[in-house]
């Protein structure tokens, strides 16, 4: 059987793409580079939308990216069930593309924040979190200036009622509503996260934690069992 | 309105030119006339005035900086030395590292955010132009007193500028310094360092060889930013055109710079670049004259082809514009289509603006008329050189005689420790560093607050093989030490950066420096400069680490008050197996704690004298370079042998602060015993010392290694518990240390 193929999207200003590709390799899957200007998902089994500043983000984070040629392919595929994980800018893009509800706004502190963040995995029944225990506390780095999750009261209530808050901060770094660090869509295949699992996968480098590996082993398990 | 062409200059030989407004002296202007055999055109004057400015020509510093070459130690690691965009060092396994530090002090005072941001942008392009992928940045910052109102304007802006620009580029910020002193109040120092990686056989140089090769300008379009004096020139030459005062601080676009990085790397990989130069200070003037001077010697440029953001720009302004995110490449004609295709892929505008010639002249045209016709070397390399007079400052002897011996020693050492630990210079800098991305690219092994930043060498490049190597980088500088004795102060700056690299287990290899001083026209400042350069060059020779490049920043003064002389020194080291790096501080319980090196009663320029007594006088600690070298050898060998669990450099605040920081690293306490006078033991700032944590079972082996290299090793105690205990002297819970250490900056800056 050929290895599971996880696409890693690169916009011109994407920054964490090689980090994501490295993490995909580490768990034994194949990372497939996807270019923003191509109408081509290269038949991948899942997609990782990494962090960065896709098109400079001078307008609103992710506001232009959702119109990229690649997104024309990705949006319907995600609606049809393709597993997609967006972290940081990737999460912002998923919200702008309406694959996930709500929006990410300027941190309450008005400062960019880079720190090792304790979070709780609230749902382990998504495509990207099955390797974790329900309620497991883990450490992942956050690094963003616009990570404050906001949505209408109805949306927040619905997310909470339907168990779609996937990851919650323990010690809110940015003023997000309900300490929300990550959410999923109704089907559980699309997940958006502000923290960066790809920076917590090796002892030697990155955050002092390898807790990020679980996101990658989760998707690998799902794809191999599929 | 007519253009000031060469033809016009010949027919109007006596037309007065505004050279003085451009900062040029009469004798310098006379020399330009002598070189050209006529008066310069406005455009030529623009070129000579910026290329012969202090910033570009090093006219006051050159005679001193030569020592970095004449006294340079033999180094097999040095691949490219001074004079290029940045030095390049062999780090093994076919890899090379290139690094440089540069100042952006004055712009950062005028407009802190953009000034600091474009400082990062500029140094990153220097590294790119060597053929390297930039892999990390760090910043050495100096501000006025922490509680001064203007510091509240400058510091947050500078930090935000660095944060915004560096984070958008995707470069981890792995270290640096934040120092406060009233002397920097009107003259903050923003020194930005960048390091890049490349394959050793892929070095690119700033050169334009091969007549017929095309000159390509690519990146951002040219606008009126950073023009400074050129508007004087334009309006003087064209009477009716009243150009509004142009903004003198550049504005950065990090997204364009990120595109440029990826674009350049693809251009290098496709082998379609013959020579390359970034556009920094003096913009097109600098790039064309330097490329031409180092190549075949001639270049023809049509300035009308330069893409403009503001179509009203005159040629003089185009030549002097410091618009950011621009590069200039020399490309073989047959490679132009491939070059353009790569630029298009990355949405980077690129334009052929001229070609290399063998005429020995740099010729530029505007609207069909020749407006520049000069030998490029006369602007690039043959600027004026000054032997500025220098003399020891009148108050120097009195300053040195006013030793800290007269200062009252504290009765309560616990209170003294906490007072120092919470003082702005020693307090936790997380308020600053948490605004920088330290993880991007996933190669960061150690970052602030570690003694040095350490990176794994792991880049995807043609011909690259897997390696276990890593590099370490640190910057240091102590203006108070340098004020007391600039010769020793520069050596101590080098010694500390060298030591900070060594405590991580990396072997120091090479040096970059940023020399921040007052006005070179003040003989007393010039004396400080001459002494500092002499000291640094001598120390580099003794320690066997060559200077690979750097930058001089003069005129850091307000009125007659200059800053403390502040040589900031960056050291790069290499570690064979990066998995063997030594973390900062106490990493576990039950480890033996040892102090390496000799402690003397040295309080001149110390943090204690500064914080407690507001005193600056006497002499700085002795710079014992042989002891530094022996200490570094022990640290590197011990790391290689896996003997160290943690280590930490001793510097500002002495052993007391080093112990506190070592406890704070992982929240592990320690109990230690001091034999001699506890005040000196805890707060003296003697150099060539480090604190280490060693597993008990290998302590004998480690002590033997120290003895072999004649490095004094004093067992102080053991790690463990939740307090720092100095037997019979003081006891502070780690939680109280943390509260004191972390509270200061947030209280000041929100």
Automatic annotation (TrEMBL), chain A:
Q: Is the keyword Cytoplasm assigned to this protein?
A: yes
UniProt cross-references to PROSITE patterns, sorted A to Z: GATASE_TYPE_1
Catalytic residue positions = 88 (nucleophile), 196, 198
- InterPro entries per UniProt: Class_I_gatase-like, PRibForGlyAmidine_synth_PurQ
Q: What pathway is this protein a component of?
A: Purine metabolism; IMP biosynthesis via de novo pathway; 5-amino-1-(5-phospho-D-ribosyl)imidazole from N(2)-formyl-N(1)-(5-phospho-D-ribosyl)glycinamide: step 1/2
Keywords recorded for this protein, A-Z: ATP-binding, Cytoplasm, Glutamine amidotransferase, Hydrolase, Ligase, Nucleotide-binding, Purine biosynthesis
The answer on whether this UniProt entry bears the keyword tRNA processing reads: no
Subcellular locations according to the entry? Cytoplasm
Top-rank lineage group of the source organism: Bacteria
- Look up the EC number in the record and give it: 6.3.5.3, 3.5.1.2
* GO BP annotations, alphabetical order: 'de novo' IMP biosynthetic process
What GO CC annotations are associated with the protein? Answer: cytoplasm
Catalytic reactions on record:
L-glutamine + H2O = L-glutamate + NH4(+); N(2)-formyl-N(1)-(5-phospho-beta-D-ribosyl)glycinamide + L-glutamine + ATP + H2O = 2-formamido-N(1)-(5-O-phospho-beta-D-ribosyl)acetamidine + L-glutamate + ADP + phosphate + H(+)
Q: Name one GO molecular function term.
A: phosphoribosylformylglycinamidine synthase activity
**Free-text function comment from the UniProt entry:** Part of the phosphoribosylformylglycinamidine synthase complex involved in the purines biosynthetic pathway. Catalyzes the ATP-dependent conversion of formylglycinamide ribonucleotide (FGAR) and glutamine to yield formylglycinamidine ribonucleotide (FGAM) and glutamate. The FGAM synthase complex is composed of three subunits. PurQ produces an ammonia molecule by converting glutamine to glutamate. PurL transfers the ammonia molecule to FGAR to form FGAM in an ATP-dependent manner.
Q: How does it assemble?
A: Part of the FGAM synthase complex composed of 1 PurL, 1 PurQ and 2 PurS subunits.
Q: What is this protein called?
A: Phosphoribosylformylglycinamidine synthase subunit PurQ
This protein's species is: Nonomuraea rhodomycinica
Give me the gene this protein comes from: purQ
From TrEMBL, chain B:
Q: Which reaction does it catalyse?
A: N(2)-formyl-N(1)-(5-phospho-beta-D-ribosyl)glycinamide + L-glutamine + ATP + H2O = 2-formamido-N(1)-(5-O-phospho-beta-D-ribosyl)acetamidine + L-glutamate + ADP + phosphate + H(+)
Q: Which residues form the signal peptide?
A: none
Q: Where is the composition biased (Polar residues)?
A: 1-13
GO-annotated cellular components: cytoplasm
- Start and end residues of each PurM-like C-terminal domain: 210-366, 589-722
All copies of domain PurM-like N-terminal, residue ranges = 83-197, 451-575
A Gene Ontology molecular function term of the record: magnesium ion binding
Q: In which pathway does it act?
A: Purine metabolism; IMP biosynthesis via de novo pathway; 5-amino-1-(5-phospho-D-ribosyl)imidazole from N(2)-formyl-N(1)-(5-phospho-D-ribosyl)glycinamide: step 1/2
- Residues recorded as binding substrate, renumbered to this chain, are 103-106, 125, 250, 322-324, 553
User: Which residue numbers delimit the Phosphoribosylformylglycinamidine synthase linker domain?
Assistant: 21-59
Q: Which GO terms describe its biological process?
A: 'de novo' IMP biosynthetic process
Region Disordered: list its residue ranges: 1-20
User: Where is this gene product found?
Assistant: Cytoplasm
Q: Summarize where Mg(2+) 2 binds, as residue positions.
A: 126, 278
Catalytic residues (UniProt): 55, 104
| Residues annotated to bind Mg(2+) 1 | 102, 551
- CDD domains tied to this protein: PurL_repeat1, PurL_repeat2
Q: Where does ATP bind?
A: 58, 100, 513, 550
EC assignment: the record states 6.3.5.3
Instruction: Tell me which UniProt keywords the record has, alphabetically.
Output: ATP-binding, Cytoplasm, Ligase, Magnesium, Metal-binding, Nucleotide-binding, Purine biosynthesis
As for family, the record states: Belongs to the FGAMS family.
Which HAMAP family does the protein's record reference?
PurL_2
NCBIfam families assigned to the protein according to its UniProt record, in alphabetical order: FGAM_synth_II (TIGR01736), PRK01213.1 (NF002290)
**What does the subunit comment say?**
Monomer. Part of the FGAM synthase complex composed of 1 PurL, 1 PurQ and 2 PurS subunits.
Query: Sorted alphabetically, which PANTHER family does this protein's record hold?
Result: PHOSPHORIBOSYLFORMYLGLYCINAMIDINE SYNTHASE SUBUNIT PURL
**What protein name applies here?**
Phosphoribosylformylglycinamidine synthase subunit PurL
Organism field = Nonomuraea rhodomycinica
Q: Which gene encodes it?
A: purL
């Amino acid at each position: 059987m050929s290895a599971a193929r996880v696409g890693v999207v690169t916009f011109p200003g994407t920054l964490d793409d090689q980090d994501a590709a490295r993490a995909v390799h580490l768990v034994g899957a194949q990372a497939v580079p996807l270019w923003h200007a191509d109408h081509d998902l290269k038949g991948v089994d899942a997609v990782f939308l990494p962090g960065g500043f896709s098109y400079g983000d001078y307008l609103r984070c992710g506001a232009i990216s959702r119109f990229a040629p690649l997104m024309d392919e990705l949006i319907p595929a995600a609606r049809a069930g393709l597993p997609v994980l967006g972290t940081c800018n990737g999460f912002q893009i998923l919200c702008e593309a309406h694959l996930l509800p709500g929006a990410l706004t300027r941190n309450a502190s008005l400062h960019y924040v880079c720190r090792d963040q304790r979070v709780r995995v609230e749902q382990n029944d998504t495509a990207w979190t099955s390797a974790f225990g329900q309620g497991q506390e883990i450490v992942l780095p956050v690094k963003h200036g616009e990570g404050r999750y906001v949505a209408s009261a109805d949306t927040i209530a619905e997310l909470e009622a339907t168990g779609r808050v996937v990851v919650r901060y323990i010690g809110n770094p940015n003023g997000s509503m309900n300490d929300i660090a990550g959410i999923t869509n109704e089907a559980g295949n699309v997940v958006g996260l502000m923290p960066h699992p790809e920076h917590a996968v090796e002892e030697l480098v990155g955050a002092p934690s390898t807790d990020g590996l679980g996101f990658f082993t989760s998707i690998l398990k799902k794809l191999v069992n599929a | 309105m007519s253009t000031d062409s060469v033809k016009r200059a010949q027919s109007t030989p006596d037309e007065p030119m505004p050279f003085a407004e451009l900062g040029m002296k009469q004798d310098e202007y006379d020399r330009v006339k002598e070189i050209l055999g006529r008066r310069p055109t406005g455009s030529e004057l623009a070129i000579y005035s910026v290329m012969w400015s202090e910033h570009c020509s090093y006219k006051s510093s050159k005679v001193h900086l030569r020592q970095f070459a004449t006294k340079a130690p033999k180094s097999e690691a040095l691949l490219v030395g001074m004079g290029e965009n940045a030095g390049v060092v062999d780090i093994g396994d076919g890899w090379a590292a290139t690094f440089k530090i540069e100042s952006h002090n004055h712009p950062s005072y005028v407009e802190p955010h953009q000034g600091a941001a474009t400082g990062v942008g500029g140094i990153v392009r220097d590294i790119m132009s060597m053929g390297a992928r930039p892999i990390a940045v760090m910043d050495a910052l100096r501000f006025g007193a922490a509680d001064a109102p203007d510091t509240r304007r400058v510091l947050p802006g500078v930090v935000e500028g660095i944060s915004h620009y560096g984070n958008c580029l995707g470069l981890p910020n792995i270290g640096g310094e934040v120092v406060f002193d009233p002397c920097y109040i009107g003259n903050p120092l923003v020194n930005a360092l960048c390091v890049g990686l490349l394959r050793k056989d892929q070095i690119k140089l700033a050169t334009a060889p091969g007549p017929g090769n095309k000159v390509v300008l690519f990146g951002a379009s040219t606008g009126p930013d950073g023009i400074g004096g050129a508007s004087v020139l334009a309006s003087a030459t064209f009477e009716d055109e009243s150009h509004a005062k142009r903004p003198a601080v550049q504005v950065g676009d990090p997204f364009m710079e990120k595109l440029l990085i990826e674009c350049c790397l693809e251009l290098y990989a496709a082998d379609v670049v013959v020579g390359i130069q970034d556009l920094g200070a003096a913009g097109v003037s600098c790039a064309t004259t330097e490329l031409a001077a180092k190549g075949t010697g001639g270049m023809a440029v049509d300035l009308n082809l330069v893409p403009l953001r503001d179509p009203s720009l005159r040629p003089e302004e185009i030549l002097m514009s410091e618009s950011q995110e621009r590069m200039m490449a020399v490309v073989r004609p047959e490679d132009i289509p491939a070059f353009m295709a790569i630029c298009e892929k990355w949405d980077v505008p690129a334009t052929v603006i001229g070609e290399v010639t063998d005429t020995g002249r740099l010729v530029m045209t505007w609207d069909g008329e020749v407006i520049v016709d000069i030998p490029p070397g006369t602007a690039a390399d043959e600027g004026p050189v000054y032997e500025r007079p220098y003399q020891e400052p009148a108050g120097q002897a009195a300053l040195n005689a006013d030793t800290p011996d007269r200062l009252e020693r504290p009765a309560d050492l616990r209170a003294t420790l906490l007072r120092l630990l919470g003082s702005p210079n020693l307090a936790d800098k997380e308020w600053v560093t948490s605004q920088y991305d330290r993880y991007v690219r996933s190669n960061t092994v150690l970052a602030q607050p570690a003694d040095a930043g350490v990176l794994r060498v792991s880049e995807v490049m043609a011909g690259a093989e897997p390696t276990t190597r890593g590099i370490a980088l640190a910057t240091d500088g102590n203006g108070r030490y340098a004020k007391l004795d600039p010769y020793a102060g520069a050596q101590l700056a080098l010694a500390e950066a060298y030591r900070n690299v060594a405590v991580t287990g990396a072997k120091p290899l090479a040096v970059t420096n940023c020399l921040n001083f007052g006005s070179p026209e003040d003989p007393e400042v010039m004396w400080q400069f001459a002494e500092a350069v002499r000291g640094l060059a001598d120390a580099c020779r003794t320690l066997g680490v060559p200077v690979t490049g750097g930058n001089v920043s003069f005129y850091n003064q307000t009125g007659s008050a200059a800053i403390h002389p502040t040589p900031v020194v960056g050291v790069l080291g290499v570690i064979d197996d990066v998995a063997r790096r030594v973390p900062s501080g106490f990493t576990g319980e039950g480890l033996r704690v040892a102090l390496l090196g000799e402690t003397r009663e040295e309080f001149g320029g110390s943090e204690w004298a500064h914080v407690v007594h507001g005193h600056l006088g006497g002499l700085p600690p002795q710079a014992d370079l042989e002891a530094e070298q022996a200490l570094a050898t022990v640290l590197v060998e011990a790391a290689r042998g896996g003997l160290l669990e943690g280590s930490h450099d001793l510097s500002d605040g002495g052993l007391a602060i080093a112990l506190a920081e070592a406890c704070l690293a992982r929240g592990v306490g320690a109990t230690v015993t001091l034999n001699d006078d506890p005040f000196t033991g805890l707060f003296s700032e003697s150099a060539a010392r480090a604190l280490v944590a060693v597993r008990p079972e290998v302590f004998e082996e480690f002590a033997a290694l120290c003895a072999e290299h004649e490095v004094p090793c004093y067992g102080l105690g053991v790690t463990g518990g939740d307090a720092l205990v100095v037997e019979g002297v003081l006891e502070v819970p780690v939680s109280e240390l943390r509260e004191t250490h972390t509270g200061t900056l947030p209280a000041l800056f929100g």
